[in-house]
Amino acid sequence: MNTPAPPPTSQDESTQAEPATPLGQRLAARRGPILAGVVAVAVAFGLWGVWRVVSPDPGDPRAQLEDSRRDSRGQQREIEHLQQRVATLGRSDQISRDANRDLQSTLAERDEEIAGLRADVAFYERLVGSTAQRRGLSVHALRLQPLNNTAWHFTGTLTQNLNRGAVSTGQLTMTLEGTRNGKLEKLAWADLRQQPSAPGVGYSFKYFQQVEGDIFLPEGFTPVRVAVRLVPRSGAAIEQSFSWADATRDVAPATATP
């Protein structure tokens, strides 16, 4: 009959437990890195979640709205830039227009001045030139300028070169033909001056002289023709007529009436 083996002594137990000690140490050594990795993954996952919340996806309406806002701000800056350019170009164009208008006005004034000087030269050549035609006392031109609705200022240019060196002296008067209330009417010098027995405008010259004065038209009177009468101190009176349209232009040629 077999005899049961005696139980192991404490020395045997310590001998059998000794091999388990290195495995526990290895498990304890691996537990630290694994825990650190788990923590790192958790932190990374948390950061990714925060980034997803803060920075939405491109398809997110909030992202599209932000993009639209950026585009709108860019377009607004572009619009402001273009508006500034338009304003600058507009000012430049206005300055050019003003300068061109001033230049055209200056050129027109110079052309008018040149035309006037040429007319003066022609006038003097006809009057005192070597080939000038000898003429007695006459009204070379008549000019009328309005002062108001009824008052007019007249300037008559008188000439003579028949008797060179001789002085022509006398008085100038005028009469006016026209219509009023559908009827023909003639205004005498006293009517035009609004003075009974009004004296004429005196003149005295050798070759030419400009005689000036004012006349007054009654209300409702439409002038048609004006006649200028020269009464020299010696000799017969001379009368020349002008149409009102010619007399109210810059220079009006005379039409002698017998």
Automatic annotation (TrEMBL):
Transmembrane portions of the chain: 34-54
Keyword match Transmembrane: yes
Region ranges (Disordered): 1-23, 58-77
Entry protein name: Membrane protein
Domain of life of the native organism: Bacteria
Pfam families assigned: DUF6776 (PF20567)
Keywords recorded for this protein, A-Z: Membrane, Transmembrane, Transmembrane helix
Species name: Lysobacter panacisoli
Residue spans of biased composition, Basic and acidic residues class: 59-77
The keyword Membrane appears for this protein: yes
